[in-house]
Specification:
The chain is an alpha+beta fold and 215 residues long. It is built from 1 helix and 14 strands, in the order αββββββββββββββ. A 12-stranded antiparallel beta sheet has the order 1-2-3-4-5-6-7-8-9-10-13-14, with no helix packed on it. A two-stranded antiparallel ribbon has the order 11-12. The radius of gyration is 39 Å and the shape is elongated.
């Protein structure tokens, strides 16, 4: 037999063996990958089923974070939920499309407040405040630092009043108003069924004050 023919046959046999071994290794690798993917899918499916079961049982989902920023499709911040001070007072603020404040609310250990700003940059605003001694609602505005007047509802522990005040300082109070006693020069409060008008210097210019029983 020709030597070159024998060598060629030997090489062909080696190549055939290598090809069979390569196919076997590929088969093992494919099987390993498929088994790994199946194991991952099974684990994910088990976790999802468990989470869904827990949510279905409670009906609620908990999301926890230190701060939230809500942005619109253009990337502009439109709402911000955060802590406003080192004491951990939560605050929530809303903004318009150009970054102006439209609504703010916060609560600390002493006071809860909500402030709504007009869309023209906040030249008018409404404030609601509650603490241990009073509940107050005020509405007013200013132009370049000059007050435009305001109105308010004040509820204190022993007094309640409606107040209207113009930019010149004249005001009218319906409810418990403070009037200076002519004899003692000390202020006393009228009943809630009173209407008192003051000039810009705080002097009474008109009043309708019923007398308390027994006076």
């Amino acid at each position: 037999m020709d030597t070159s023919t024998t060598e060629s046959a030997r090489v062909a046999a080696k190549l055939s063996n290598l090809e069979r071994e390569n196919r076997r290794l590929k088969g093992l690798f494919t099987a390993t990958v498929l088994l790994s993917l199946a194991a991952v899918a099974l684990a994910i499916g088990t976790h999802v089923r468990s989470a869904v079961a827990q949510e279905s049982k409670s009906g609620l989902q908990t999301v926890q974070a230190y701060e939230y920023v809500l942005r619109d499709s253009a990337g502009r911040m439109r709402a911000h939920l955060f802590f406003s001070d080192a004491n951990g007072s939560p605050s929530l603020a809303f903004f318009d499309s150009v970054g102006r404040s439209r609504l703010s609310m916060w609560a600390d250990d002493l006071t809860t407040s909500v402030v709504a700003y007009s869309p023209d940059g906040g030249r008018f605003e409404t404030t609601m405040t509650a603490n241990a001694s009073a509940a107050i609602i005020q509405a007013g505005g200013s132009e370049r630092g000059t007050p435009k007047g305001n109105a308010g509802l004040f509820a204190f522990k022993h007094a309640t009043q409606l107040k209207a005040e113009d930019a010149g300082g004249f005001r009218t109070i319906v409810g418990n108003a403070a009037i200076e006693d002519g004899a003692t020069a000390k202020p006393h409060y009228t009943t809630a069924a009173s209407v008192v008008m003051y000039d810009s210097n705080g002097r009474v210019i008109w009043q309708a004050v019923p007398h308390r029983a027994g006076r």
